[in-house]
Design brief:
Order of helices and strands: HHEEHEEEEEEEEEEEEHEEHEEEEEEH
Helix content: 10-25%
Structural class: mainly beta
Strand order of the largest sheet: 1-2-5-6
C-alpha cells in the first residue's frame, strides 16, 4: 500500500488544475514579404566621381546604406558624442558597390570595374594624376585590391604576404607610385603600402593603429596619411604603455556633481555624451594615441607626446605639423568637437607655438560661431623654405585678407596667427588668412 502525504496530494492537484501555457522556443529573425524585400534592397542612386585630371568619369551603383544585426550586436561604447567599438571591426560583409563604370569625358572609352561573381566593390580612390583607379573587391568573406588603368583597360591585383582582413582607407602618394591602405584583422589594424608597378604590398606597422581614430570618430580621419603626398606616412597608434581597459565598477564610487556657477546659457541636445568619471577613463583609454612617422622601410618614429589628438595636418612643405589636442576638464554637455583644446605647430622635433581654445560652455548657439577666444589656425598656400621658418611680427590687429589672385609680395610671407571667423579652414588647403602664434 502506497501512502501519499498531504503535501504531495496538494501539489499533484495544483499541477492538474493549472492552466496549460504553451512553451515557445526561441524564434529566429524572419524575412518580410518578397515585395517589401525588393523595396528595402533596391540599389541607391548612382554616384558620380570625376578624376583629378578631369578626363574620366566613374559612375557607381551601391547597396542601400544598412546596418547589419551583427554590427548592432557588436560590443560598443558611447563616449563624447561617438559610438566606438571595443573590438577591431574586421568583419567583411557582402555590402558595397554593385557595379562601376569608368568612361572618358568624350564618351569614346568605357571600362567596367571587375566585380566578383556574387560579390561587391568596397571603396574606390583616384590617383593624384587621375590616370589610375584603385578599388577593393569583396568575395566570399575576403577582400583584395585592384588597380585599373582606364586608358589601356589593364587591371592588376595587389598581393602581399599575410594580407587579409578588412581593407580600407586607400590613399595614393602624389607621384602615383605607391598606394597606402589599412588592413583590419581580429588582432587590430595595421598600415600597408603597395608598389603600384610591381603590385607587391608589404605591411609597415604591427596591428597597433588606433582603430578609434581610424574609423572616423575624430574629424573623419583615416589614421594614416602621406606627408604632403609623399613618404613618410603620419599614423596614430596605440600608446606603448596602454595596458588593459578600465574595469567598469558594478557600484558607483560617488555621485556626479555638475555646477552651473549661477550662469544660465542655452544649450543644444547631443547624444552619447560623457556621464561619469568611468566614461572619462574609457574616453582616455580608447581615444589616446601616439603620433608617429612611418617610412616605406617600416621604420616607426614617435613624435611628441601621447594625447587625444583631434587634428593632425601637415604643412605644404612637409616640415611642420598642425596638431590639436583635447584638454581637460572634459564636458558632460557637449561632444568631443567642442572640448577645450590646445593647438600647436610642430616641426617634427619641437613645438613652435600654441593656442588654447575657448571653453565649450561659453560658445553661443549661433551656427558656426566660434566665440571671442576661439582660434582658427590656417596657412598661406604659397610659402618658401626660408619664409616657412619666419614668424610675422605684425600685431594681430593689422591682419588683412587677400584675394586668391593679384596678390603682392606680402602674400608670400609665412605666418600663423589665431583668427576669429565663422568657419575653420584646413591647414593643408588653399586658405588665405594665417598668422603668428603667441
Amino acid at each position: 500500500m502506497i501512502l501519499l502525504s498531504y503535501r504531495r496530494i496538494l501539489l499533484s492537484t495544483c499541477l492538474l488544475l493549472a492552466p496549460r501555457v504553451p512553451v515557445w522556443s526561441q524564434q529566429t529573425y524572419q524575412s518580410p514579404p518578397a515585395d517589401l524585400v525588393k523595396i528595402l534592397e533596391a540599389p541607391a542612386n548612382p554616384i558620380t566621381s570625376i578624376s583629378p585630371n578631369r578626363q574620366w568619369i566613374l559612375v557607381t551603383v551601391s547597396d542601400p546604406r544598412t546596418v547589419t544585426i551583427r554590427e548592432m550586436a557588436d560590443s560598443a561604447y558611447y563616449l563624447a558624442g561617438s559610438k566606438i567599438r571595443a573590438n577591431p571591426d574586421s568583419r567583411v560583409d557582402n555590402i558595397g558597390i554593385r557595379s562601376g563604370t569608368v568612361s572618358s569625358v568624350d564618351g569614346k572609352v568605357e571600362r567596367m570595374l571587375q566585380v566578383p561573381a556574387g560579390g561587391r566593390i568596397g571603396s574606390t580612390a583616384w590617383s593624384t594624376s587621375g590616370n589610375q583607379l584603385a578599388y577593393t573587391t569583396i568575395s566570399d568573406g575576403t577582400m583584395s585590391v585592384e588597380i585599373l588603368d582606364p586608358a589601356t583597360g589593364r587591371s592588376r591585383r595587389i598581393s602581399g604576404s599575410g594580407l587579409s582582413g578588412r581593407i580600407r582607407d586607400l590613399d595614393w602618394s602624389r607621384d602615383g607610385k605607391n598606394l597606402a591602405f589599412t588592413a583590419t584583422t581580429p588582432a587590430g589594424t595595421s598600415a600597408w603600402v603597395a608598389d603600384v608597378t610591381s603590385g607587391a604590398a608589404r605591411r609597415l606597422t604591427p596591428p597597433t593603429l588606433n582603430l578609434t581614430v581610424a574609423r572616423g570618430n575624430i574629424v573623419d580621419d583615416t589614421g594614416c596619411s602621406w606627408v604632403n603626398g609623399k613618404a613618410p606616412l603620419i599614423c596614430r597608434i596605440w600608446p606603448t604603455n596602454r595596458g588593459a581597459p578600465p574595469k567598469l565598477a558594478d557600484v558607483p564610487t560617488g555621485v556626479v556633481v555638475q555646477e552651473s556657477y549661477g550662469r544660465s546659457a542655452p544649450a543644444r541636445t547631443y547624444e552619447y555624451l560623457l556621464q561619469s568619471p568611468t566614461d572619462e577613463a574609457l574616453f582616455d583609454y580608447y581615444f589616446t594615441d601616439q603620433i608617429v612617422l612611418v617610412g616605406l622601410d617600416g621604420k616607426v618614429t614617435p613624435i611628441g607626446q601621447t594625447g587625444i589628438h583631434t587634428r593632425v595636418s601637415p604643412s605644404p612643405d612637409g616640415n611642420y605639423l598642425l596638431v590639436e589636442t583635447a584638454q581637460r576638464p572634459y564636458s558632460y554637455q557637449v561632444p568631443l568637437g567642442a572640448f577645450p583644446s590646445r593647438t600647436e605647430i610642430w616641426n617634427l622635433s619641437a613645438v613652435h607655438g600654441s593656442a588654447n581654445s575657448v571653453r565649450p560652455d561659453r560658445i553661443p548657439l549661433r551656427r558656426h560661431h566660434l566665440g571671442v577666444a576661439e582660434h582658427c589656425i590656417s596657412r598661406r598656400s604659397t610659402l618658401t623654405r626660408r619664409q616657412t621658418a619666419r614668424l610675422d611680427d605684425r600685431p594681430l590687429g593689422s591682419e588683412r585678407r587677400y584675394s586668391k589672385t593679384g596678390l603682392g609680395p606680402q602674400r608670400r610671407r609665412s605666418l600663423f596667427r589665431p583668427r576669429n571667423m565663422g568657419g575653420c579652414a584646413g591647414f593643408n588647403d588653399r586658405s588665405i588668412r594665417s598668422a603668428a602664434l603667441e
